[in-house]
Amino acid sequence: MKPRWRRMLWWSLAALVLALAFAAYFQPAFMFDMATRIAMCF
Amino acid sequence: MSAIQRPLDLKTVLLATGVILTLAMGVRHGFGFWMQPISQANGWSRETYSLAMALQNLLWGAFGPFAGMVADRWGTSRVVIVGAFAYMAGLVWMATVSQPALFIIGSGIFIGLGLACTAFGAVSGIIGRAAPPEKRSWAFGISGAASSFGQFLLMPIEQTLITHVGWQSALYLLASVVVFLMVPMAFRLREPAVHKAGGHQQSIREAFGEAVGNRSFLLLVAGYFVCGFQLVFIGVHMPAYLADKGIADPKVAVTALALIGLFNIFGSYWAGQLGGRLPKRYLLSFIYFSRAAVIALFLVLPLSPLTVYLFAAAMGVLWLSTVPLTNGIIAGVFGLSHMSMLAGVVFFSHQIGSFLGVWLGGYVFDLRGSYDLVWAISIGLGVLAGLANLPIDERALARPRLQAA
Asked: Which fold has domain B10-189?
């Protein structure tokens, strides 16, 4: 594989991992946990 | 474990330290999720768990210079192995100990030591030694990005673990992952005769004395104090501030958290990359001035979900971007022989700033019923840190006696 394609593959993989991690923040269970933590501030 | 003779390979060092930093910074970042289940299971008030977290952070800073000293003298590999087992012990301690004082002291010591031995300060020396001078800042940027990535990635993972396997099993699982991933990575960080690297034989006492007597080092220490103060104040008190102002929708807070995490990765990487081309002191000044400006704008503009997202993205870029630049200056001015120890000293001031940021936020809020004064202090400190970094002298120190030796 050419270095340019290899680099693009790595960047695409990194972007995919970041997108999946970002999406994980919006799972209902995570949101509920955050809401609980915010409520605990008071 | 014996020292090896092959030279350090930058790719190997970056990969190994990347895994170590991802875990070290990521696991601790989600500790807030355990506050409710641990407090509930043991019948504690939230104060007990909060105090344990505060002590962890302080001891992380206090152990830092010593962990760095050992890493510089006897090798990063050994320090990371000790750190991985201390981290594991701390997580198991958190899962099993139900006596409040023992919980606070034990988790504080074990996790604090674990972090001091596995986080950025401890591994910065080996990164500096593996990277040629022209790539050093970039390499620090990659490691900073790995730390940021850990914080971003592990929060939802830890929350999912608690939901699916329970809070105790989640801690046991993380303890296993820490040891089984960090220890093999530590073996990739063996280096030949660490204490002789750098070409001169300065003692720890001499290196420490030289640094604390150096104006530029003290200015870096002052800047890092501000960094810790601002970040932890915002990280801890932001949700309460938003709710006070009528934005209580958890979706806004979660989106802000995710944006800070995501942009933090890019900010750390870009800072490191730019630090290889531009004077690092000016970049650091720019970061602190920008933080002050972003906070001021956030307070002046009408508060809405959009301004919260913009604020989070901007602060995310500026979040850990100070780390590669500060460490880059330390490496450039003082050399690499005592790099980890000096990074640990500077980081201690970061942790004192963090402690004050959290505490002052709560104290002033109780006293005045608003965060306005602490926001104003954050802006003022940002401007002062921006000014403090301008006169830093980035040139390597001349050591005639040592060079002649």
From this structure: Growth Hormone; Chain: A; (1.20.1250)
Amino acid at B140: F
pLDDT digits (tens, 9 = 90+) for A1-42: 788 888 899 899 999 999 999 888 888 888 777 777 666 555
What number does CATH give the domain B208-404?
1.20.1250.20
Q: B43: buried, middle or exposed (CB in 10 Å: 19+, 13-18, 0-12)? A: exposed
Encoded amino acid at B352, one letter: I
The residue among A6, A13, A17, A41 with the most chain B CBs within 10 A of its CB, best to mutate, is A41
Identify the pLDDT of residue B45: 77
Strands in B24-109 per DSSP E: none
Q: What is the pTM of this model?
A: 0.88
CA nearest to A23 within chain B:
B258
Q: Is A27 on the interface with B (CB under 8 A)?
A: yes
Do B117 and B245 contact (CB within 8 A), yes or no? no
Residue of A nearest to B260 (CA): A22
